[in-house]
Amino acid sequence: MIGSVNASAEWTYLTNGADWASVDTAPDVNKCATTNQSPINLLSEKADAFDYTIYKGEEDAITKDYSNQFNTQNNNNGHTTQVTLDQTGTNFYTSKLAEKVFNTGTAWEGMQFHLHAGSEHTIDGERYDLEMHTVHYPKKDADGNRPTYENEFIASAMGLVFSVDKYTADLTFAQQQVVDNFFDSLKWSDTASPTVDMVTYGSLMELVDFENRWVYKGSVTTPPCATFVYWNVLSTIYPVS
Predict the structure, then answer these.
(1) Partners of 161 in the beta sheet?
(2) Within a domain: residue 54?
(3) pTM (2 decimals)?
(4) Residue 170: strand, helix, or coil
(5) CA nearest 224: which of 10, 76, 23?
(6) Total tally of structural domains belonging to the chain
(7) What is the pLDDT of residues 28-69, one digit of tens each?
(8) Residue 13 domain flag
(9) Which of 130, 162, 172, 225 satisfies CB 3.0 to 4.6 Å to 32 for a cystine?
């Protein structure tokens, strides 16, 4: 999640966000239910209504560099569990599509990741068991400043979707262990907000397929639904047990 909400504001997922436009998010402007609202229903190529532009991999030339997180807290904030990423020069991706399609910079630095159960985005109208988001800000320049963009893009998000029994990833045993080890490393069963020795986040992010994904101009998915966010959602659905 990006941005803040007035401490007095109360919101839930009971109506899937249909009531968020009425949430008091002062001093932030509530942009829920306005333009470019996320999450959305994503269409696969098999869908009758599919009319998305498809880009070749070389047009994007995506790269990524993510690391495991050490001695960190998996924080339960009441709406999701969230891990703040270390800022040591890793945990970023580059995407030429960000510049080509949306006129932003190409490099995005990871700030935190969090999880939603079930998935916030749907695919062909179907909601899956879990969705993980990594929130990125524009990568700092050589002087340590984050660039700002005239088109008001504030952040980028990378979404991974997981399912117990409707996954599409064809993983080897070793790759499946990477996914399982990541979820085990979060130590959900220990305390509400456990501090853990190592979260194998980097191992997971280096495994997953960034080449095949949906991209669109959207928003933060929770109040105040700030715009604009360069959204990426991986089209491969990964197994979770």
Answers:
(1) 131, 237
(2) no
(3) 0.86
(4) coil
(5) 23
(6) 1
(7) 888 787 777 788 899 999 999 999 999 998 999 999 999 999
(8) no
(9) 225
Residue 198: inside a domain: yes
Helix (H, G, I), strand (E, B), or coil: what is residue 163?
Answer: strand
Q: What is the pLDDT of residue 16?
A: 60
Q: State the CATH number of the domain containing residue 213.
A: 3.10.200.10
Poorest-pLDDT segment among 171-175, 187-191, 202-206:
187-191
Residue 229 lies in a domain: yes
Host domain of residue 219:
24-40+61-239
Q: Which residue has the higher pLDDT, 150 or 64?
A: 64
3-state secondary structure (DSSP) of residue 201: helix
Strands 122-123 and 107-116: unpaired
User: Which tokens in the block code for residue 92?
Assistant: 């970023």
Which pLDDT band holds residue 7 (cuts at 50, 70, 90)?
very low
Task: Identify any residues that bridge with 218 across adjacent strands, giving them in sequence order.
Answer: 229
Rg over alpha carbons for the chain, rounded to the nearest Å, is: 17
Two tokens, residue 188: 């959900």
Angle at the Cα of 75 from the Cα atoms of 241 and 156, rounded to 5 degrees: 80
Cα 19 from Cα 15, distance rounded (Å): 7
